[in-house]
Amino acid sequence: MNLCDYNEIKKLLADFDFRFSKSLGQNFIINPNVCPQMAELSGIDEESGVIEIGPGIGVLTAELAKRAKKVVSIELDSRLIPLLGITLAEYENVEIINADVLRTDLHALIKEKFDGMKVYVCANLPYYITSPVIMALLESRISVESITVMVQKEAAQRMCAGVGSRESGAVTVAVNYYAEAQKLFDVSAGSFMPAPKVDSCVMKLTIRNSPPVSVSDEAFFFRTVRAAFGQRRKTASNSISAGLGIPKETVIKAIESCGFAPGIRAEALSMDELAKLSDAIANNL
Ligand code: SAM
User: Fold this and answer.
1) Sheet holding 49-53, edge to edge
2) pLDDT single digits (tens) 26-38
3) Which of 137, 225, 228, 280 is deepest in the core (most CB within 10 A)?
4) Which of 3.40.50.12780, 1.10.8.100, 2.40.170.20, 1.20.1250.20 is the CATH number of 218-284?
5) Would you list the domain boundaries of the chain?
6) What pLDDT, in 10s, does the model give residues 122-160?
């Protein structure tokens, strides 16, 4: 079955009386070039295990199944499960789990399904939960090699921006702490059925063996970063003071002890500088 053929998909969906759910971020890929390219660039091979989030009707799943040893796809919409049974019938190495990815214990899943394999995440994410999913994957420190995902173009730009650049934000720092982020290719709205209002981008997060900076208190580092970027038009001192609820003088003292200008903004600080600043603030409390 050609899962990128508009008419075939329409018939399949009609057979199952399926209506797209906007609230579940259901936009299915119909551009035949996208999924093979995504699967190819994700780095998987015949020894790999793959976790897919949101298989939809299985267009990316099939490309992953052709290249990997085993694919486990997590789909929340139970209406899609019987349909996937048909579209993926020829692939014996695919397992579909009907669950919410944000409520799935991925440590346990990896142990149970992929014992001894190198594991990769590859998915065309539902956009309403892009950041929570990516942060959950990174923060849980599940044992995966990389995360290759399609996200909204603006989200990819923010996550793949250099820390210390104008486009950077708290999510840029968080992503860069755990992974090396790389934009792979853009995908136009017309590549989906139905077409979303936004353009998309495939990006790859290659998981680091260790963070690029060392901080004395990781949780405090992330709280400081979130506070620093919390009010984009304000100086780092104002934002951090408001966000952490500590006196501005304390923050300025820490900023100056690091050798930074008192009026510096968060987006001008590199990863090293943000780490130095959070440690200095912690020491001044
Ligand atoms: N992979 C398919 C493709 O590329 O055509 C479909 C991608 S579509 C953008 C997102 C998919 O994620 C939908 O199938 C949707 O039902 C599913 N989904 C939405 N929320 C989810 C969640 N919390 N956990 C797992 N799957 C979810």
Assistant:
1) 94-98, 70-75, 49-53, 119-124, 146-152, 200-207, 179-187
2) 999 999 999 999 9
3) 228
4) 1.10.8.100
5) 6-207, 218-284
6) 999 999 999 999 999 999 999 999 999 999 999 999 999
3-state helix/strand/coil string of 160-180: HCCCCCCCCCHHHHHHHHHEE
Per-residue pLDDT reduced to its tens digit, 228-265:
999 878 999 999 999 999 999 999 999 999 999 999 99
- Name the residue of 75, 80, 106, 192 to mutate for ligand 1: max ligand atoms within 8 A of Cβ: 75
CATH of segment(s) 6-207? 3.40.50.150
130 lines ligand 1 (CB under 6 A): no
Question: Is any atom of ligand 1 closer than 6 Å to the C-beta of 58?
Answer: no
115 — phi, psi (to 5°)? -50, 125
C-alpha 56 – ligand 1 centre gap (Å) = 5
